[in-house]
Amino acid sequence: MKRGFPNITVRTVSLTVASVLTVAAFLTRSGLAQPTPEGRQQMSQDTSIEQTKAKGFEGVDFYYDVFGAMPGQDPQKTAQQVMKKDVAEKPEVMTKQRKLLEERYDLSCKRTADLTMTKGKPQPIGPVVKLPSKVTWESLGRSSAEDIKRRQIFPAGFDRLPHPKHAVGGQIFPQVQIKQFPRLERFDVDFDLPDCWLPEFPPPIFLTTHPELGDVSQGEVLHADNFDRLFRGLVTHTQLDGLRLLVTQFPQEEFNLTHDRKTVNPSLGVTCLDCHVNFHTTGQFHLNPDTRPQMQRFRLDTTSLRGMFNQQIHGSKRAIRSLEDFTEFEQRTAYFNGDPIRAMKKGINMIDRLQVAHMGQMQSIIDFPPASHLDPMTGRLDRTKATQLEARGEDLFFGKAKCAGCHMPPSYTDHQMHDLHLERFGASADGPIKTFVLRGIKDSPPYLHDGRLPTLEDTVEFFNIVGGLQLDQEERKALTAFMRAL
User: Fold this and answer.
1) Were 252 and a residue from 210, 240, 335, 336 both cysteine, which residue would form a disulfide, CB within 3.0 to 4.6 Å?
2) What is the pLDDT of residues 357-383, one digit of tens each?
3) How many CB atoms lie within 10 A of CB 288?
4) What is the DSSP string of 391-420?
5) Taking the alpha carbons of 164, 170, 171, 176 in that order, is the dihedral positive or negative?
6) DSSP states of 199-236 as a string?
7) Which domains can be identified in the chain, with CATH numbers?
């Protein structure tokens, strides 16, 4: 026993040394984690705080390196360089996006005083999508998908609408919101769509539990400083706690406290209701988190949270099956582009499932705006109140136009996902997309998942072509009138 003990000890030490030498040799041969000249200097002398904090080796390290930048030795210096570069390039980025919009759309903002959203903002009137030379809506509506693709006459405004800075992406907020909340401004890119194409700001809030009160927002944007004053006494303790979390800032890819951000000053992050303002939307957008590579991701317009109590799937492509899962996964994925490494670097936030349920309960009582021409029992038109044009539009909606194949009352959705196969027309394929709710649709421009359709008229023209409906001008006008009545 005594003689064996030293042999065991020596053998163990020998193996340990050999292992270390092997690993060291491997690292040298593969070029991994080799000290830079600055790193060697740092190891050979007394160091200052800044020298101690230096990265000291080549290769990407998410702790140090700014997203989209070359690996650097000083994260703060690199972040400053990136910001300087982004600020200098911003005018060119926005000029390029403006040119794209002008090529696709008429940006003159057509409106009429008698067509308004719930609180009085004029609705945008279209169609504003520009047509190819010598092409009319009537001739396009009569053309087959094969003919449109062959002649390359599918309107550019009906194809994917890119993010102004698609390679980087991230959440972008409209100027009307930034004016009230400057913390939401990015230094590298601005919002791109005209204000006349956006919903009302601030949007009204309607509660299923208090229909007699109408809009309970009192004309304010819900945020951390006023949610208790506005809602205590109107909702339960559980719902109020959920609302507290919905107006609490959490770290996000571009808005966070680290050096790797897109705001001039460090930020606590964004809230759920920064994007879904007053449980609705004002056109905020980012890129969908569930597609790769980066340039194949598509722009994703923020959807309304109205009527969530009557929807069975959530997320444009993810088909999340419960409101609670949507609440939890949205924060885990969309906030950081579906990349958990980014979340761990910038501020991962694990919301307890009990609190997620509280957030879900608050979202579950958000109602649609009133619709005076609808029968509350069926969600269909009350023909004693509807206009002749609306009534004809309803007949088309449930008949020739085939809209009800996906959009069924009362919320006007089928809780399914459908693929329009736009590649038939020579456009980019989107794959299956959730059927969005049409109830209260007049309050939610622009339309489709990426906001490519600025008006309801554009939406009708789009589906007339894509669906091969061959609706004439008067039929398209009637169908639009019916949707405004929803």
Assistant:
1) 335
2) 999 999 999 999 999 999 999 999 999
3) 21
4) HHHHHHHTTTT-GGGT--TTTT--S-EE--
5) negative
6) --SSPP--BTT-GGG---STT----TTTHHHHHBTTB-
7) 97-104+162-363 (no CATH), 137-159+372-485 (1.10.760.10)
What 8-state DSSP symbol labels residue 473?
Answer: H
Residue 310, C-beta contacts closer than 8 angstroms, at least 6 positions apart: 410, 411
Burial of 455 (0-12, 13-18, 19+ CB in 10 A): buried
**% of the chain residues with pLDDT over 70:** 86
Distance CA 96, CA 106 (A): 16
Over residues 425-459, the pLDDT tens digits come to: 999 999 999 999 999 999 999 999 999 999 999 99
φ, ψ at 16 (rounded to 5°): -65, -45
CA neighbor of 179 nearest in space, from 221, 230, 119, 147: 221
pLDDT one-digit tens code per residue, 152-192: 999 999 999 999 999 999 999 999 999 999 999 999 999 99
Give, in degrees to the nearest 5, the angle at Cα 165 between 258 and 86.
55
- The full DSSP string for 313-381 is -BSTTT-B-SHHHHHHHHHHHGGGTT-HHHHHHH------HHHHHHHHHHHTTBPPPP-TTB-TTTSSB
Measured CA to CA, the distance from residue 117 to residue 41 in angstroms comes to 66
Read off the DSSP letter of residue 195: G
Task: Report residue 69 CA to chain centroid gap.
Answer: 24
Q: Contact at 8 Å (CB) between 123 and 110?
A: no
- DSSP calls for 294-314: GGG--EEEPPP-TTGGG-S-B
